[in-house]
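USER: Please consider what follows.
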Amino acid sequence: MDSVVKVAKTKLETSYATSLKSVAKTIVGTCLPLGIKVEGKTPKEITSEINEGKWDEKFQ
């Protein structure tokens, strides 16, 4: 997840998203068709966890 946050911080300036959390969800969503897992979980599971607030401390 640290890698996702690092990329999200880089992309935040050029993205239309308004928050780091939104950019991170976009990046995780991009992993889905590529078959990439994040923290050993599918992108759908990680997106649900982001929506639930499990990773909020990473986005501050």
In short: Residues 2-59 form a domain with the Arc Repressor Mutant, subunit A fold (CATH 1.10.10.250). The radius of gyration is 11 Å. The helical segments are 2-11, 20-34, 43-52. The chain has one domain: 2-59.
